[in-house]
Amino acid sequence: MLDQPRYKPIALPMYDWPEVRTETEVLECELSRAIFRTLDIRPADIWNWRPDQDELPTRWGNPGLLLSQTCGYPLVTFLEGKVEPVLTPHYDAEGCDGPLYSSHILVWADSGFDRLEDLAGKRAAFNSRDSQSGYNAFRHCVAQIAGGKVFFGQTLETGGHLKSMEAVAAGNADVCCTDAVCLDLVRRVRPELFSSLKAIGRSRQVPGLPLVTAAGHSCSVIESIRAAAVSVFEGRETQKSRKRLGIRGFSVLSAADYRPLIEMRLEAEGLGYPELV
Fold it and tell me: Do 67 and 25 fall within a single domain?
């Protein structure tokens, strides 16, 4: 039994869209069973928790975190030292290569924009400032061509990749940047939205979204959590769900492997482009 008396339920929130909720729940349930069994955790040790009452940064940074999935940029910024990577899924999507993924710069399909340079002075949508794909990678791409000057005429913070894509499709923004896994989900479960968008560029590849646990757990507990997670990601019980979610394997990466995300920010700042606007 762990020393920490109360734990956060296991949840994988990053690609948990309604169209794949059933498959995500299968993974969450199997991960819960494996980890609870390995660590001898009883249901009474789990907080009575509701997703709509617990913001993601609070959940990720809680010392009782057993397992969740986070964006890589929070991992190397405000979560540094608070969480430990457990494993990084491999996704079968254009722009992904093993544990690496990239982000796609998207415009309306009939907009006439073919290069990022065409978007000078236009409206950009992004999901949030703590996002690798929607903000950090987007900023890095723009920094290469902005010459240290303000590039976009307006920015819109939407709160989610899907909302950013919908804003572009609806004409409320001219461009956004979305990670390869989200765009592939749109292709598979929202084909009408996918057909209304066009990719005109792609960011540098970096390590993808890791599953993490609280860094305050002992090394033996973290290794036990990792072993349990590996068994689930290799098990027959989750094979169909993983296929539906586009998961084709996994790698075990360290926090240091995510250093390229910080390097992208530093490069953008060095080019005189510390903000997306």
Answer: yes
Q: CATH code at 245? A: 3.40.190
Q: Is the pTM of this model over 0.90?
A: yes
Q: How far apart are CA 36 and CA 43, in angstroms?
A: 9
Task: Tell me whether strands 123-126 and 100-101 are parallel, antiparallel or unpaired.
Answer: unpaired
Is 26 in the same domain as 60? Answer: yes
Task: Tell me which residue has tokens 């292709």.
Answer: 187
Rounded distance, CA 137 to CA 134, Å? Answer: 7
Question: For residue range 150-190, what is the model confidence (pLDDT) as tens digits?
Answer: 999 999 999 999 999 999 999 999 999 999 999 999 999 99
Q: What are phi and psi of 179, to 5 degrees?
A: -70, 160
Residue 210: closest CA among 180, 255, 160: 255
d(Cα 244, Cα 260) in Å, to the nearest integer? Answer: 29
| Structural domain harbouring 221 | 18-90+208-254
Residue matched to tokens 């399909």? 109
Residue 8 within any structural domain of the chain = no
Extract the tokens encoding 190.
């929202």
What is residue 164's DSSP assignment? H
